[in-house]
Amino acid sequence: MAELDLGQHCQVEHCRQRDFLPFVCDGCSGIFCLEHRRRESHGCPEVTVVKGRLKSDTPASYPCSFEGCAEKELVPVICPSCQKNFCLRHRHQSEHGCEKLETPRPRMAATQKLVQDIIGSKTGETASRRRRGAQSTATAAKVALMRLKLHAAGDPSLPQTERIYLQVFLPKGSKEKSKPMFFCSRWSIGKVVDFAASLASLRNDNNRLTAKKLRLCHMTSGEALPLDHSLEAWIAKEDCPLYNGGNVILEYLNEEEQFLKNVDSYLE
Fold first, then answer.
1. Closest listed residue to residue 265, CA positions, set 196, 184, 169
2. Which of 92, 242, 223, 57 is nearest to 167 (CA)?
3. Residue 136, pLDDT score
4. H helices within 63-108, ranges in order?
5. What SS3 state is found at 169?
6. Are 58 and 51 in contact (CB under 8 A)?
7. Residue 238 has pLDDT above 90, yes or no
8. What are the φ/ψ torsions at residue 133 (nearest 5 degrees)?
9. Integer-rounded Cα radius of gyration of the chain
10. Most-buried pick from 155, 173, 239, 247 (CB within 10 A)?
C-alpha cells in the first residue's frame, strides 16, 4: 500500500518534523510545526524588522553625568576634555568640576604673554581716563541700577540679594540695540552668556566647533571675559571691574580674539 503524502515538514533546519496540521507564519509565510509556530521560535525576520522600527521610533535621550542631576538632552553635549555627556546647565568645565580642567600649559605661555600685552596696550590707552572717571562711572551705574530694576528681564526666582543688573548691548545687526537683564552673582560668565542669549533670542553655538563664539565683553576695555570666571569675581575686581547697573557687550568673536574693537560704536 502506497504511503500517503500527507502533511508538510517544518522549515526549521534542525527540526524538519512532519506535521499533518502545519502552521503558516503570518510574518514570513513559512511552514512550521507546533513547537516552532511562534515567530520568536523560528527566528522570523519580521520580528527583527519590527524591533528595529520600534527602536528607531523611540527618541534617544542623553542623561547628564553630573552627580545629582537628572536632566536629559535630546542631543549629546560632550565635554571636550573629560568626554562625558552633560546637560546644557553643566556643560562648561567649571560647572561640572571637570576632572581634566587644565591650567595654561607652558608651551602656550608666549601666546598668552602676547595676548596680555595686546590687552595691556588697549587698556593702557584708557587707563588714565578710567582713573579719572572711575568715581563718576560708579555713580552713573548706581543711577542706572534704579532704572534697570524697573525693566530688567531675568529669572524671577532669584533672590534680590544675588541679582546683578546689567544693560546688555547686543551683537551688531540685532533687532534691538540693548536689553536690560539681571543675573545671579554666583553664575559663571559662560552661564551668563547662555542665559542672556536665551533672553535675547540670539544664536548660541558655543558648544559647537564653529568659527565664532558668543562672548561677554567689558564695555571699557573691550576684553572678552573668560567663560569660567564668575560674575561676582568681576564685580569685586579693583581694577576695571563690572558695576551692578553697568553696561556689557554681547558679540560674536573668533577663538583667537581676546578683546572687542571699537566698543564706543555700541553706544552710538
1. 169
2. 242
3. 64
4. 93-96
5. strand
6. no
7. no
8. -100, 10
9. 32
10. 247
In the chain, at which residue ranges do the beta strands (DSSP E only) sit? 8-9, 18-19, 23-24, 31-32, 62-63, 72-73, 163-169, 178-184, 212-218, 247-254
Q: What's the grid cell of residue 135?
A: 568715581
CB 245 within 8 A of CB 141: yes
- Say what the pLDDT of residue 128 is: 56
59 in Cβ contact with 38 (< 8 Å): no
Per-residue pLDDT tens digits for 50-99: 555 555 555 678 899 998 898 988 888 888 888 899 998 888 888 888 88
Counts of helices then strands in the chain (DSSP H, E)? 6, 10
C-alpha cell of residue 51: 524591533
Name the band, by pLDDT with cuts 50, 70 and 90, for residue 165. very high
Residue range 40-54, pLDDT digits in tens: 887 887 765 555 555
Number of CB atoms found within 10 A of residue 215's CB: 25
The string of DSSP codes covering 165-225 is EEEEEPPTT-SSSEEEEEEETTSBHHHHHHHHHHHTT----TTS--SEEEEEEETTT-BB-
Q: Residue 235 burial (CB < 10 Å; 0-12/13-18/19+)?
A: middle
| Residue 171: all three cell numbers together | 551683537
Calculate helix-pair angle for 127-151, 109-125, nearest 10 degrees.
90
State mean pLDDT over 95-112: 68
Residue 255 to residue 251: CA distance in whole angstroms:
12
User: Which of 140, 233, 130, 128 minimizes the C-alpha distance to 188?
Assistant: 233
